[in-house]
Amino acid sequence: MEERLDPALVRMITAVLLGGILGILNSTMVAVGTDVLAADFGASLSTIGWATTGFLLAVTVAIPFTTWAVDRFGGRRTWLSGLAVFLAGALAAGLSWDVGSLIAARVVQGLGAGILDPLVLTLLARAAGPARAGRVMGLMGVVLSLGPVLGPVAGGAVLDVLPWRWMFLLNVPLGLVAVLLALRSIRGDDASAPAPSRLDVRGLALLGPGFAAIVLALSQAAEHSAFTTASVLVPLVAGVVLLLAYGAHAKRAAAPLIDLRLFARGGFTASVAVMALVGLGTFANLFVLPLYYQQMHGHGVLAAGLLVAPVGIGGAISMPLAGRLSDRIGARMLVRGGAIVALLAGLAFTWMGPDTAQAWPAVAALVMGLGLGFVGAPTMGSLYRTLPPRLVPQGSSALYMLNQLGASIGVVVVTLILETAGDAMTGFHGVYWFAIGAIVLVLAASPLLPGREER
């Protein structure tokens, strides 16, 4: 008979997921308000775009710091600190008086989200233990699936009835509820745990900015639809140099921020690679499907956002089931099956045309979400089965940074495909052939994931 989750664990999961979804929602919510913000502040669209870009860059910079902070201050205090920083940024964004103050507030908000995002996985993995990792990661997968989809929908709904400031101010009461729940349900860390190492300041100065520079270069490439501009090449070269310097530093350091020897574990490397590919495929879907509904069927922003929801709904349905099954039979078979289902959905999109009934893209999107859900939850669960508890924070940071990088690469490639295609429908098909290629790589990596005998 299947073991039921302890009520205290359920309360802790609820508190962590509520805080976690705030950061994920805010990464995509503001995009729908770009026109409104530009008009209100009298700024260009590219300038307002930095409210989102600054948020994402701050997330990337903060993630490595969380690896050390959770060992130094404990999961509970680090979580509450991340929530406090995030809420301060949200309040400041809601009260911002010009575009500069808005961007600065969004950077603060992103720093808070960068602490919360990897810590969600760390706290849940530690509380659940290896035997229930898949089941709990399946619940986390619901947030990961619905968050990016619901962000634009929630932003559009708020802008329909309230001033734009409420996109940020509504985070405050929700965040305070998350704080109260955390105070009641997240326990302090074991006082007998070994003392943490000193902060790897040099590693922090190289790793976070290095990844942030590459994400910036990719976002600029998406905006300009080219890799040859200075705004792309300068941060790209800087990011590569910083990451190479971090690699050299990590080999010599006694306690590097993220130990690169983690990647010598085949199961860990396969897990983070698969999750990066899932991020790539998911954001390709979220980027191109609204354009399809707007350009081929004439829908507005909010309607197009709602029609993309089946991708997230599919993942929200399948991830809890897949996570529970992975605790029994391992990840390998489930990931293969999910990848094949997602592959078939991608092929279905390549057969659709401008006159296709709108029900079919919705069905294909739902099936795509179901398939990717059977890939994501077992893969996240397997990652924490391959690591000892002391390495879980490092694993979470590596997972989130590579997932963020995969999503950024996905958006860039999708943009370039759409810009260089002869017509909109050809570009749409090209994007799904690209997504199919990513899913084929998932299938290729699946044999390295734990199977039934290694669960």
From TrEMBL:
PANTHER family: MAJOR FACILITATOR SUPERFAMILY MULTIDRUG TRANSPORTER MFSC. The chain crosses the membrane at residues 12-33, 45-66, 78-97, 103-124, 136-158, 164-183, 204-222, 228-247, 268-293, 299-322, 334-353, 359-377, 398-418, 430-449. SUPFAM superfamilies: MFS general substrate transporter. It comes from the Bacteria. Residues 12-453 form the Major facilitator superfamily (MFS) profile domain. Keywords: Cell membrane, Membrane, Transmembrane, Transmembrane helix, Transport. InterPro entries: EmrB-like, MFS, MFS_dom, MFS_trans_sf. This is MFS transporter. Belongs to the major facilitator superfamily. EmrB family. Pfam families: MFS_1. It is found in: Cell membrane. It is a multi-pass membrane protein.
